[in-house]
Amino acid sequence: MSLERLDKIISNTNGFSRSQLKKLAAHGRVMLNGEVIKDLSVKADGDADEIAVDGVKLNTQKFVYIMQNKPKGVVSASEGRGDTSVIDILPPSLKRSGLFPAGRLDKDTTGFVLITDDGDFAHRILSPKKHIPKTYIVTVDTPVNDEAVNTLEKGIELHDGTSYKPSVIKPLDDSRTKLEVIIFEGKYHEIKRMFKAVGSSVTELQRIKMGALMLDSQLKEGQSRLITADELKLIENKPE
Ligand code: URA
Fold first, then answer.
1. Residue of 151 and 15 predicted with greater confidence
2. Residues 221, 75: Cα–Cα separation, whole Å
3. Distance CA 124, CA 63 (A)
4. Residue 175 Cα to ligand 1 middle (Å)
5. Which pLDDT does position 240 carry in this prediction?
6. Residue 78 and residue 239: Cα distance in Å, rounded?
7. What is the pTM of this model?
């Protein structure tokens, strides 16, 4: 148990400044164990006490891991710089300082984005040496024949010298314009550029899985939720 000033605990967790918190507290919007607190210099235990701002309970876990179903038009970055970012659309209950997306999806790609404040974990899962599989549903404008599937599955080198490692490709319908694709690295525009190289343009791209963890089908586009400890192990393919 370690006691700290209430304003310090809250601002370390969700990034509110001390002056913002002072105003919120003056309006009776900060609670400690169910009681309205106006003087934020009181001491509390971030691990044991229940702290709430505007009725939203503070999550004081050391690190958090969030699954988001990213909609189109939202950028995978900590700051949108004119665009809306994946952090901007988190609900207040999940917001805290230091969050960033572990890996990037293009602005027009939808699906599973992992958001965390754990730099070591992000570094591990993004390391090219780890070969963590990422699974996508890809829609293209031109059918992908067996020859193109074989070419992409073997790995491909583009004219500019960029090379993509072997992938796993499964056509999902008779038109061969919808495919499940598993890649083991995460280069810039990787899937779009792979398919372009075999004559098909990607029209829709959705990430559905990281490692062995599926995107929760209950999460609507734009929604986010915490990842459980057991689910987290699935990302690194370390189920018990
Ligand atoms: N490959 C792409 O081309 N775009 C993404 O967003 C992800 C993988």
1. 151
2. 14
3. 15
4. 22
5. 47
6. 29
7. 0.84
